[in-house]
Amino acid sequence: MIGVGSMGGAILAGLRSPGVSVDGPISITTRSAASAAPFADADDVVARASETEPGANRIAVRGARVVILAVKPWMILDVLREIADDLEPGAVVVSVAAGVTTGSMEALLPSDVAAVRAMPNTPSHLGRGVTGVAGGSTASADDVDVVRRRVETLGAVLVREEGRINARAAVSGSGPAYLFLFAEEFTAAARRLGFDAAEAKLLVEGTVAGAAELMARSEEDPAQLRRNVTSPKGTTERAVEVLQTGGWGELFDRALAANIRRSEELAAE
Ligand SMILES: NC(=O)C1=CN([C@@H]2O[C@H](COP(=O)(O)OP(=O)(O)OC[C@H]3O[C@@H](n4cnc5c(N)ncnc54)[C@H](O)[C@@H]3O)[C@@H](O)[C@H]2O)C=CC1
Ligand SMILES: O=C(O)[C@@H]1CCC=N1
After folding, report:
1. Which residue of 86, 125, 157, 265 pairs with 58 in a disulfide if CB–CB is 3.0 to 4.6 A?
2. Is the dihedral of CA 178, 183, 187, 189 positive or negative?
3. pLDDT at site 194
4. Ligand 1 neighbourhood includes 3 CB (under 6 angstroms)
C-alpha cells in the first residue's frame, strides 16, 4: 500500500483487524519517517518512508500481487510512473483515488499488470465500510475478484462498471462526511438550546450512533424507522415537517451532482 493517510490508514486498520487474514506482511510506504515509525515493531506490516528511503515505493511493490494506491488523485500517475518497472507480472494495481480513470493508469502500466479502482470509505477502519469496485479494460474477472475478496474484509462491496464509480464516490465514498456534517450542525443546534459541550455531545452522538446501529440491524427501512418515532399529532411530526419543507431532496441532488462534477474535473487534470 502506497500512502497511509485517512483512507489508506482506515483500509490498513481494517486489514489488520482480528479475524481478517492477509498473506503478509503488508508492505506500506509513507512519505514521512514519522508516519512510518508507529509500525516499527509490527510483525504484520513492513513500513518504509520515501523521505528517508527514496526507493521505498519501488521496493515495496516488488513481489506484491495487489498494490493499493492511496495517495491524492493528482499523485496517482506520478507514483505509477515511479513503480511501473518494479511491478510483478500478473499484479493488480488498485487505485482508491477519486476521478483518476483506469484508462489513464493502464497507459502507464506494463501490459501484464491490471488496473482496478476501488472507492472505499473511512468506516472500513471498523470493518463497516462500503466499497465500490470496478475493473479496467485489461483486468480479468479473476483480477477484479482478487480485489473484491480483499475489500470484503472491510465491509460491504458493490462491483459495477467504472462508468458508475463517480456516483458511488458521491454516495458512499464521501457519504460519511455528510453524516458527520449533520452531527456537527445538530450539535451546534443543541448547544444553542443551552446544553453544554459534553451534554450536547452525549445527546447528539449517542442518538446518531444509536439510530445508525438500529437502522443497520433493523429489517425496517429508514422511512419506517422515522415513522416509528413520529407519533401522529406529536412533537417529532412538527420538527420533521420543518426539515422536509427545507428541501432536502433537492439539496442532496445538488450536493451529489457537485461531487460527481469534481470527480470529472479530477479525471481531466
Ligand atoms: N478520505 C476518504 O474518506 C476517502 C479518500 N479516497 C481517496 O483516497 C486517496 C487518499 O486520500 P486521503 O487518505 O484522504 O488523503 P491523505 O492526505 O490523508 O493521505 C495520503 C497519504 O499519502 C502520503 N503520500 C503522498 N505521497 C506519497 C508518496 N510518494 N509515497 C508514499 N506516501 C505518499 C501522504 O503523506 C498522506 O499520508 C485520495 O486519492 C482520495 O481520493 C477515497 C475514498 C474515501
Ligand atoms: O474528498 C475526496 O476527494 C475523497 C473521495 C471520496 C471521499 N473523499
Report:
1. 86
2. positive
3. 98
4. yes
Q: Identify whether the C-beta of residue 187 lies closer than 8 Å to the C-beta of residue 201.
A: yes
Residue type, 147: V
Pairwise CA distance, residues 18 & 114, whole Å: 30
C-alpha gyration radius of the chain: 21
Q: In the chain, which residues have pLDDT < 70? A: none
Distance of CA 252 to the CA centre of its chain: 20
Residue 264's pLDDT is 96
Report the residue among 122, 166, 174 best suited for mutation to probe ligand 2: largest number of ligand atoms under 8 A from its CB.
Answer: 174
Q: Indicate the annotated binding residues for NADP(+).
A: 2-7, 30, 70-73
Task: Give me the pLDDT at residue 167, please.
Answer: 97
Say if residues 32 and 60 touch (Cβ distance below 8 Å): no
CA–CA gap between residue 23 and residue 44 (Å, rounded): 9
User: By the 8 A CB rule, do 147 and 120 touch?
Assistant: no
Question: How far is the C-alpha of 186 from the C-alpha of 136, rounded, in Å?
Answer: 41
- Return the DSSP state at 67: E
pTM as predicted: 0.94
Q: Whose CA is nearest to atom 2 of ligand 1?
A: 7
48-66 residue pLDDT tens: 999 999 999 999 999 999 9
What confidence score (pLDDT) does residue 23 get? 82
Q: Is the Cβ–Cβ distance between 91 and 65 less than 8 Å?
A: yes
> H or E element: which one contains 235?
helix 235-245
